[in-house]
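During the second half of the funding period, the structural biology subgroup turned its attention to how the target accommodates small molecules. The most pressing case was coenzyme A, which had performed well in the primary screen but for which no bound structure existed. We therefore specified the complex as follows and requested a full 3D prediction, including the ligand pose.
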Amino acid sequence: MGSKITGFGAYLPPQRLTNSRLEQLVETNDEWIVQRTGIRERRIAAGEGTASLAVKAARAALADAGKEPGELDLIIAATVTPDCFTPSLACMVQAELGAGRAAAFDISAACSGFVYALDIADSFLAAGKFQTVLILGAETLSRIIDYSDRSTCILFGDGAGAAVVEASAENGVPATYLWADGTQGGVLRAQALPLGEDPLGVRAPQSIASRAVAMAGGEVLRFSLSEAPRAMDEVLRRAGITIDEIDWIVPHQANKRIISGIIRRYHLPEEKVYVNIDRFGNTSSATIPICLAEMRENGLLQKGQRLLLVGFGGGLTAAAAIIEI
Ligand code: COA
C-alpha cells in the first residue's frame, strides 16, 4: 500500500506589497531586492488570519481531488504562524470545513514543513491507518515581520497551499528525506512567548520587534546552498534514480539565488525548475504547495511525471520528497 497526491489547491490574499512600497518603508530599492532575491512583490493578508487562508486553499485542493470534507480522515497543517497556540490550525480548518471524521494536528518545521507533512501523511497511509489526508502549508508571516528591518521585510509574504493525499495501490511518494540541525536554530528565529521570570508580576506589552523574525541572512544562505542539494542527493539515492529522471524540480521559494545555485549544481535546464518567488516572495511552508497548485492550474502536471520537492529553512531544517503524478 502506498499513497498518491490527488488534489492541489492554493490561496493568495489579494493585497500586493511591491518593492516600490517597501522603498517607502525602509532604505532599500527595487534593483537591490530583485538582484539579491528575485522578488518583485509579495501578498499580505489584511484582516485575514492563517486559518482563513488555509481553508480557502483546502477547499481548492478538495475540489481538485473530487473529495468532500466529510471524507477526510486526517488534517495535518504545517505552519509557523498559527492564529492560536490552541486550537491548532488543523483543528480550525477541520471545524470550518465541517470535516467531522478527521483527526487534526499541526507541525512546525518552517520552510520544510510541507515536505515533513507529506512524509507523515504518506507514512500513515502506507501503514493502512487512514484513506484520505489533507496536508496544508499556510502562513501569515506579515504578522511576525518587523517592517523597519530591511534585511527581513523584503523577503516574506503570506499565502496557503494544500494537497489531498490518498491511499493508493501505486507508490506516488517513492522516496522522502527529512533532516534538521537544531544547533543552528539561532540564525533564523522568531520568539513565541517571553520568559516567565515573574509570572505573577505586571508584564510590559511585547513589542513587535521582540517577536519578529530575526535572521543572519548570509548564514541561512550558506546553509541552504549546501543542504538543499544534499537533501536532493539523498532523496534521489533513496529512490534509486538520477536527476535526469525527474520532470520538475519544485524548490522552496526562499531566494532566486538559492534556486539558481541548484540549477547550476545539477546543470538543469531552467524550464525544469518551477519559480514564482518574483510574485509571492517567501511564504515559508506554503511555497511548495502554492507552486504545485499553480502548476496544476496551468496544465504543467501530466500523469506519469516525477517531481522532486525540496524544502529548507528555519530550525534549521531540510527535507526532500519525490512524488509521481
Ligand atoms: N536593501 C538594500 N541594502 C540592503 C538590504 C536591503 N533590503 N538588506 C541588506 N542590505 C545591505 C546590507 O546592510 C549590507 O550593507 P553593508 O555591506 O554596507 O553592510 C549589504 O546590503 C549586503 O548585505 P548582505 O546581508 O551581505 O547581503 P546578501 O547578499 O547576503 O543578501 C539576503 C541578503 C537576506 C537577501 C540573503 O542573505 C538571503 O537571501 N539569505 C537567505 C535568506 C532566506 O532564504 N531566509 C529564509 C530561509 S527559508
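Two results from this model are relevant to the next phase. DSSP finds eleven helices and 13 strands in the chain. The CA atoms of residues 64 and 114 lie 18 Å apart.
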